[in-house]
Fold:
Amino acid sequence: MNPQAAPAQSELQQQLGAAYDPFNDPILTNPFPFFAEARAVPVFYSPKLDYWVVTRYHDCREVLQNSKLYSASNTLDSIKPVCPHARQIMQSGFRPVKTLTNADPPIHTRTRRLANAAFTRSGVAKWEGYVRDLTRGYLDAHFKNGHADMIADLGYQLPALVIFRIMGVPPESVPVAKAASSTRILFNWGYPTDEEQAKLAQDSVDFWAFAEKLVAERARSPGDDFISALLQARDGDLPALSEAEVTTILSATLTAGHETTTSAIGNAFWWLLTNRHAWEEICADRSLIPNAVEELLRIDPSVNSWRRKAIADVEIGGVKVPAGANLLVLVASGNHDPAVFPDPETLDIHRTNAKEHIGFGYGAHICLGAPLARLELRVVLEEVSARLPGLRLVPDQKLEFLPNTSFRGPRSLKVNWVS
Structure:
């Protein structure tokens, strides 16, 4: 669709489209007031993004699960068109193939079945002891002087070390992967200048070479890790995954497998410590934590939108959307839909349907690592609440977020306590 030829919309839809700027405040820091206004309509068109923005829970679920009408092919496209210089750099050494996130059936069906087989082999439950030991180690090292940063001192490295251990990636590569995560988020979901885009493109090429080398090493010398399991995965007569497919999955996992959990930890502690009664409840009764995890993922998911493309002319909530239109599916807005979650802006760790949130997506593309993310968040909350019930937010701190459409979590969250 040509953004110059804006579609016919109501005055409210036009106002919402003009106001929607996820890259800057106030929406960047706190998108939820805008989402509440936007749910007055099921969908509106954003001329800046050239995307139709889906706002309500049931519409979000329908778009995410219906692969016959909505393609995932644009999910990893750059929101901002790639400039010629950046495109030339990417073509020099960035070689992903469609596998999971941006693939439709039958490609997605095959790769997901093989990835599921590999992930099952790697297991999740068996990693709880490792996650717990890591958490305790960070608390011992950094949470002893009455003040800390929940991101820098705990949430930044912990999820990366977990996924690296599972994948079979050397732990000293954490800084490389963390930098690559920010690069990918800004390149695919941000709105960088052409100069910034060229720099991000080169970073992407460099990280692809890093992932490609790891996969080639495991192909020559398999180990007891997820990369090797992917290379060896079999399911009936399905063709095995190629090295290019495994490299693509690895590259994506080394972003989604930890950056989102880092953000989930930051979001969780902000909401719990802002809503003191909820924090005090889980400190007194840690059996409340599993449902609290679901409510935290509902109220502030670390991935607040996904993308699809309309395969044919469709209607979303009665609004006509043309074939070929790009769709931005606001799962965080859907998670605040009062038609599904009464009093949605309130953190309620006892909410009986909290697990119906769509923070991990929905349908065939639901997050492969959701069980691991749940485990990590639960263990972190168990350990921190047991050790530091007096934890509090440092007052008057301004939270900063990476400017992009989809990935949300504070870059820093300072806390203190009285020993």
